[in-house]
Amino acid sequence: MTVIKTEALVLKSIPFKETSSIVQLYTKEKGKVSVIAKGARRLKSPFRGYLEPLSYVEVIYYHKPTREIQTLSKIEFIQTFFQNSTEITDTAYAMAVMECIDKFIHGHQKDERIFLLMVNVMKFMDSNRDFIKEAFIYFLLKISATLGYKTDFSTCSVCKQPLKSALYEPSTGRIICRRCADFQERVLLLRDEILDYMRILEKVDLEAGLPKFQLAKPSIDVIDFLVSYISYHLDFPVKLKSLEILANLEFNIEEK
Amino acid sequence: MSSLPDSLQNLIEQLSRFPGIGKKSAQRLSFYLLKSSREEAVALAKAIIEIKDRIHTCSHCHNISEVDPCKICTDPKRDHSTICVVQEPMDVLAIEKTGYYRGLYHVLGGVLSPLNGIGPDDLNIQDLLHRLSDIKEVILAINPTRDGEITSIYLSKLVKGKEIKVTRIAQGLPIGIDLEFADEITLTRALEGRTNIL
Ligand SMILES: [Zn+2]
Ligand SMILES: [Zn+2]
């Protein structure tokens, strides 16, 4: 048994037995880790308050490689993102980042780049609420590349000719040109302005900020495209519940 | 362990599935029952079956009840213009114990939890919306977890605009706790929720 000290983001927390919680973390040192926080739901627990999703913490836990769930020993608060946000849109996109990590990454898959990407995106989202959707698109592009499925918006993946306007073929996971599209299959049109925007986003350094260009309503399509693209390559379907809840609320409010 | 008779072993296993009951406690309870009279054991078994047969959920508020609608929903002495929204039936019990609140309740049956796959359709949200016609105030008394927070905001956005006041119970420090032991998040909430003293 070794003692691990590492920074971590809390993905989710589920009540366990009377007073404990099982907490899923994405850690800097060990990737995805589940820990049991004994007595965490007791009023006087030193863990209480730190184990909610979107918390950025430093943890010390006992690590046994043979065990699925490790034992949390200590926790130190660094930052909590979107505390007291009354905008469900903001929280939904932030939760969607956690959800992506929960769903896209299996096993431990330690990767410091993923951890840093998450922290940077969270910090950016929290202080640039007007660009939250754009930051999420940025996150999807980067996580896709980090997982080994870098999007290519410059050449058609069939004929290798430079892409002008592009189509996405969900059944093959390919970004292709009009000439190569087999219109028997369902295709998604990636409009030129969106294509241009993603080309820029791919090269952006988040710390320097995102281009001052907000996507209009169709940005949801881009998110659908990217989630579908990543799902295709990971070989299992992913639906983001955080965004589903948001869409459901928007629908209900419109109904009213 | 294997030396125990099968029926006793079975009871121990059944009891150890209870929250807060380990193998040791389950054994102690089982031996206690073994020694108690037949009448006592039958009374216990009957009580267990009775709750399963007789307790249902109220079709108005989704609280547990033997009658439908429940006694709270039909009590003319209660304030029928206020609904307090809670996660679980246990929360109704906790608030009732204070004796402070005299309105109605609505039990959601959980909270929105995107990472655990729980969305609006998994909770009693539509039924809440159907109850709002004569309501003046909706009090959200949902646990101050991240998921609880999302649920509170979600509900307030849904209910808003219907000329109903939406309030949320205060979040802050428990009575009798030393400030130095409070976590940063609770303390921030307590500061934000500060009130005039004079
Ligand atoms: Zn082509
Ligand atoms: Zn009722």
What does it look like?
The complex is a heterodimer of chains A (256) and B (198). Chain A has 256 residues and is α+β, with helices and mostly antiparallel strands. Chain A folds into 2 domains: 2-80, Nucleic acid-binding proteins (OB fold (Dihydrolipoamide Acetyltransferase, E2P)); 88-255, de novo design (two linked rop proteins), CATH 1.20.1440. Helices cover 36% and strands 24% of the residues of chain A. Chain A contains 6 helices and 8 strands. In chain A, a hairpin with a 5-residue loop joins strand 4 (55-63) and strand 5. The mean pLDDT of chain A is 89. Chain B is of the alpha/beta class and 198 residues long. Chain B has 2 domains: 6-54, RecR Domain 1 (Helicase, Ruva Protein, domain 3, Orthogonal Bundle), CATH 1.10.8; 78-168, 3-Layer(aba) Sandwich (Dna Topoisomerase Vi A Subunit, Chain: A, domain 2). Helices cover 42% and strands 13% of the residues of chain B. Chain B contains 8 helices and 6 strands. Chain B has helices at 6-15, 23-35, 38-54, 71-74, 89-98, 125-130, 146-159, 184-192, and strands spanning 56-57, 64-65, 79-86, 103-107, 137-140, 165-168. In chain B, the strands form 2 sheets. In chain B, strands 4-3-5-6 form a 4-stranded parallel sheet. In chain B, helix 1 packs across helix 2. Chain B is globular. Chain B starts with 5 loop residues before the first helix and ends in a 6-residue tail after the last helix. Classes of the chains: A alpha+beta (256), B alpha/beta (198). The A-B interface holds A 11-14, 17-18, 24, 43-44, 48-50, 52-54, 77, 80, 83-88, 91-92, 95-96, 98-99, 102, 240-242, 244-245, 248-249, 252-253, 256 and B 19-20, 112-121, 145-147, 149-150, 153-154, 157-158, 161, 174, 177, 181, 183-186, 188-189, 192. The structure holds zinc ion (2 copies). One zinc ion is lined by residues 156, 158-159, 161, 176-177, 179-180 of chain A.
